[in-house]
Each structure stands twice: as structure tokens, then as C-alpha cells.
Fold this sequence. Notes:
- This protein is of the alpha/beta class.
- It has helices at residues 3-13, 25-31, 48-55, 67-79, 116-126, 142-148, 164-170; strands at 38-41, 59-64, 85-88, 101-107, 127-138, 174-188, 192-205.
Amino acid sequence: MNNWTQRWDDRYKSVEFAYGEEPNNYLKEQLEKLNPASILFPAEGEGRNAIFAAKIGWDVSAFDISEEGRNKALKLAEANDVSIDYQVGELETLDFEAEQFDTIALIYAHFPAEIKSEIHQQLNKLLRKNGIIIFEAFSKKHLEYVTKNEKVGGPKDIESLFSIEEIKADFLNYEIIELEEKEIELNEGLFHNGTGSVIRFVGRKK
């Protein structure tokens, strides 16, 4: 098991939910504007966002490298009386198909810096034409915030954080519905608390 997987297994092992059981606010707001269809949650961890989507009628798939994350997500699904398809592994080893999804939700999906753009490009292939990407993750400016307050969470290396330019480059073939860098207040479980800087993006695949 590599260190990256170990790190997330350790974080998700405890009884408490690392980022809470409630969905991310931005995701909730965006999903409620759309008609439920098929959706993929990459790096979904303990399942709070996937379970919310399933509860409002979406056909939900998710993946993560953490077996512990999946275990928590499936328990949460059971407690909420919904089912989700949750796979464990690196994206290229999973059996998703080209143009399988109507929506992909990247919520704090901070992949290692050296593969993050490549993953975005792989995910792009899984989305249908006119499909929607919903994205919220920490911006490069967030480094200043996490230095002042570790409780807000997020990567501490600039390469793992995002810029508007990177998002435009990674999702070239998208109509930008919304793209902004924004200071927000986070109150999500044990590891996302306080003021942070995020990139928010909603795009439609051309």
C-alpha cells in the first residue's frame, strides 16, 4: 500500500466522519438546479456527497483509493436507505465507460499534483456531450489561509492547489457556466473548518 492510500485510510478509519455527513453546500446548490441523471463522484471518500445525490434521485457512481472510505460510504448509504456503486482503485483500473455519465462532481478531489490534470482529462472522456462538471477545490491562494489556520484543511503544497487558468486548460472543451475564485467559510466535519479560498467551476461539455 502506498503512502497516499495509507494516509486516506488512516483518516477515514475513525468512527467520526472526517468531513461530516452533510453534503458540500456548493454541490447541493448546483445539483438542485439539474434534473437527476447519472453522476460520478471521483475521490469520494466517506460518501457524504454521493449519498445526498442518491437521496434526491440521482443514479450514483463513485470511486476512491481508500477501502476505509468506501466502507463508511456504504454504511452511510444503508443508513439513508439508498444504494450507490462505489469502486476502489486508481481511475485507469476501474471499469467506467466512455460517455457513461451526465454529470461529474469534483468536490475537493485533490489528486497528487503530478497526475491531477491527467485525471481531469480521463474524466472528461467519461462525460457525455452536454454533460456537466461541478467543481469545488482549494485555490493556490488557499496556502495563505491554511498557513494561518490548519483546521481549514487542504493541501500545503502549491502544485496540488488549483488556479482558474489550470481549470480552463484542463477543461478546454467546455462552455463555462461559472468559474470563480472565492473566499468561503467551511464547516465540514473535523477537517474543513474556517475561512479558505476555493475555485468553483460549472462547465458544460461541448
